[in-house]
Amino acid sequence: MKFDKLSMASIGKINYLMLLIFLLAISSCKLQVNVCDDFDTSKLSKIWRTDRMAANSLELQTKIVRKGSGAAKITLHAGDVFEAGIGKSKNSERDELQEIKKLESVEEKKYQYSFSLFLPGSFPIVPVRLVIAQWKQHCGDNADCADDSPVLALRYTSGKFSIVMQTDSSKTKLYETYADIRNKWLDFKFIIHFSRLSNGSTEAWLNHEHIISYHGITCYSSNKGYTNPGHFYFKTGLYRDVMKEPMTIYIDEYCKKELMQ
């Protein structure tokens, strides 16, 4: 009987440990980012922040869509979310959707992003700085890095579309084209591993064509005041140098998920 009681106690402990491991595994899975927004509802998803947008710049509409029944329409007017330039940088204005803090990416993890963008045929071709999607590295209140460029940016200036990576002292043009990207849906997919080491990587596809395969440093270092590990947030919409003419962009089929390494 003593042996039986000991066995039952051991079995109970084993079951408890197995249950604990199972619960920890579930908890770990829940912490991994895996979100999507098809913009098919009448209200904006809670995965987005809108503090970098003017009040009337966003419309969830049904006329121009990539899939489903809706897409986000962002119209930037002169003076929207104005920001004075710092140092040599010019004044800027923007209307951008930004992912909420708990969804932000962490250095040394790998993430997959996919989203579709549409610039109407009337979209102005102008020689001003314009970013339509970007990944920014958190700088906090450090003045040394307050005016740094995004680590990765989708830019459209003077009819040239480019994807540019910026780190401490290196600015790398990963992709560029002068083909007219207006009046067609642009389906993007990125797989990004942010790292201040040589193991970083960026892979990208545009309309299912593999356009980028980059391996190396993919973020700023602590030398410029950034924290270690780094944290990164995604934004999409319109960010430009100040000008009078309005611009409109459509966004649809956004997904982000953390990948196992």
First and last CA, distance: 49 Å
Give the overall silhouette.
globular
Number of helices: 1
Name the structural class.
mainly beta
Rg, rounded, reads: 22 Å
Measured as a percent range, the helix fraction is 10-25%
| Strand segment count | 16
Strand content: 35-45%
Could you give a short account of the major beta sheet? 8 strands, antiparallel
Low-confidence stretches: 22-30
Task: Spell the H/E element sequence.
Answer: HEEEEEEEEEEEEEEEE
Mean pLDDT: 90
Structure in words:
With 261 residues, the protein is mainly beta. It contains one helix and 16 strands. Strands 1, 3, 4, 7, 12, 13, 14 and 16 form an eight-stranded antiparallel beta sheet that branches. Strands 2, 5, 6, 8, 9, 10, 11 and 15 form an eight-stranded antiparallel beta sheet that branches. A hairpin with a 4-residue loop joins strand 10 and strand 11. The chain is globular. Residues 22-30 have low confidence and may be disordered.
Layout of secondary structure:
Layout: H1 2-31, E1 34-37, E2 48-49, E3 58-61, E4 71-76, E5 92-99, E6 105-106, E7 110-118, E8 130-137, E9 152-157, E10 160-166, E11 171-177, E12 185-193, E13 201-206, E14 209-215, E15 231-241, E16 247-259
Antiparallel strand pairs: 1-16, 2-5, 3-4, 4-16, 5-15, 6-15, 7-12, 7-16, 8-9, 8-15, 9-10, 10-11, 12-13, 13-14
